[in-house]
Give the backbone structure.
Amino acid sequence: MSGRGSKKVAIVAGDGIGPEVVESALAVLEAVGADFERVPVEIGLVRWKRTGLAMSEEDLAALKECDCILFGAISTPPDPNYKSVLLRIRKELDLYANIRPFQSQNLDFIIVRENTEGLYSGIEEMDAERAQTMRIITRRGSERIAEKACDLAASRQKLTIIHKSNVLKSDRLFLRTCQATAKRRGVPYEDMLVDAAAYNMVTNPRRFDVLVTTNLFGDILSDEAAGVIGSLGLCASANIGTDHALFEPIHGSAPDIAGKSIANPIGAMRSAAMMMRWLDEPEMASRIEAAVQEGLASGARTPDLGGNSRTVDVTRAVVGLLRGRDTNWS
Ligand code: ATP
């Protein structure tokens, strides 16, 4: 990361445990020899407390100018009129596909979550007596997320379309569009009600391969999946659009454990690996993933996984494995 590389990566460390896990991800990227220019962008609650603004137009422009974004976590300012900054970034950069792989010793599935529509439309109002939020589902939005899911499912087993079309008209459009896309792409598919999916995620998660669903369902099922895998701290994600991409662990800023040096950095490291794959460096991505696996197997585990390693211990273990391999290979 000498800055000589032609790629520019915006680094948004953010709030809470965000800076701690981003530091770990950067250490791992450095160890693997990733060469890109770092563009630090301060966004989030700390920034809001300091300046009254969580993100400026210039920040947004800086994010758009970079090849991609490595993101930690941010907290939304405690102001009822403030809309989520991360949602704004996802919308402004049109990061429509949230791809969340879940892997453990005996589980391997991917949740593909639509990231720009559904109940996160931002079209809502509230007074003392009544509140309403508009759930927007479009054919175009459903088709492009279904295409993304089919890209992944094509080299795997099957696609499961998760919905609540027995109650929601909007999900009838989502289901029909996903079914038509899978059929056209020749991808084996099934569909499942979201409540049944929540149950199956706990009782029989191995039945899943690639899941595609709407925004809120994907958000909730992802945290459930993280629990099934063992910890939120293990899980990575990519937010992909047509021209931009943002990589972040799926956890939030976890203010309850911030500053204690016990945050699990694995989700952030795995997000960095997803970023390198997106930047067309698959070998670096695979090396990070392998070192993370080996580090976990060797017992480098933070308290959320029942271990007593600190964030820096896990980072040191994974970086050591990567540097050791470098030496052996040279
Ligand atoms: P936010 O409001 O930013 O979403 P949050 O605290 O509501 O933050 P998460 O950050 O997703 O939600 O965290 C939920 C809980 O999971 C935290 O209270 C924390 O104990 C745990 N957790 C999340 N991330 C990690 C991590 N990387 N390592 C260990 N524990 C974590």
